[in-house]
């Protein structure tokens, strides 16, 4: 979700997850 990505914290986990899903 965009709301979670907007958060500065846990961005690494969210970004990694987003990239993992986006790469798939």
UniProtKB/TrEMBL annotation:
This is Uncharacterized protein. It comes from Kipferlia bialata.
């Amino acid at each position: 979700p965009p709301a979670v990505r907007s958060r500065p914290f846990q961005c690494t986990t969210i970004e990694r997850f987003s990239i993992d899903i986006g790469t798939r």
